[in-house]
Amino acid sequence: QVQLVASGGGLVQAGGSLRLSCAASGSIVTINTMGWHRQAPGKERELVAAITSSGVTNYADSVKGRFTISRDNRKRTVYLQMNSLKPEDTAVYYCQMGVVTLRQISDYWGQGTQVTVSS
Q1: Can you give the pLDDT at residue 90?
Q2: What ranges make up the beta strands (E) of the chain?
Q3: CA dihedral 108, 24, 68, 15 (to 10 degrees)
Q4: What single-letter DSSP state applies at residue 74?
C-alpha cells in the first residue's frame, strides 16, 4: 500500500515564503512524475508545478518565477518552495505522484495541506 504525506503548510503574510514537502512510503518500485496541485474555495483543482523523473519541470503561469519544485528520489519526496506569496495563492495544496509498484502504475494523492496568505 502506498501513502503520501504532505506537510509544510501554514499562515504567512503576503511576500513571505513557505516550503511544502510530500513523502511517499510503501511498496514502491519507482516514481514517475511528481506534482503539486491546489484548490481554492469555489474553484477547480489546478496544477501548480510538476517534475518528471529526469528532472524536467513545468509550472503554472501564475507561479512561474516564484515557486520551485524539486525532488529527492532517494527519499521519495517532492518539495515546493514558494516565495513572494500572494493572497491569491491561498488554497489547499495536494501532492500527486505517479507510482510504480509490482502490481500497477497509479496516481496517488496526499491528504492536502492548507496554505493561507494574508494581505
Answers
A1: 98
A2: 3-7, 10-13, 18-25, 30-39, 46-51, 57-59, 67-72, 77-82, 91-100, 105-109, 113-118
A3: 90
A4: T
**Length of the chain measured in residues:** 119
- Which residue is it, cell 491569491? 88
CA distances from 46 to 13, 28, 29, 54 (A): 22, 26, 27, 23
CB of 31 closer than 8 Å to CB of 76: yes
CA 44, 86, 50, 23 torsion-angle sign:
negative
Adjacent-strand bridge partners of 57: 51
- CA pair distance 62, 116, nearest whole angstrom: 16
First to last CA, the chain: 41
Report residue 83 as a C-alpha cell: 516565495
Torsion of CA 53, 56, 60, 62, to 10 degrees: 130
- Grid cell digits, residue 37: 496541485
pLDDT in tens, 17-76: 999 999 999 999 999 999 999 999 999 999 999 999 999 999 999 999 999 999 999 999
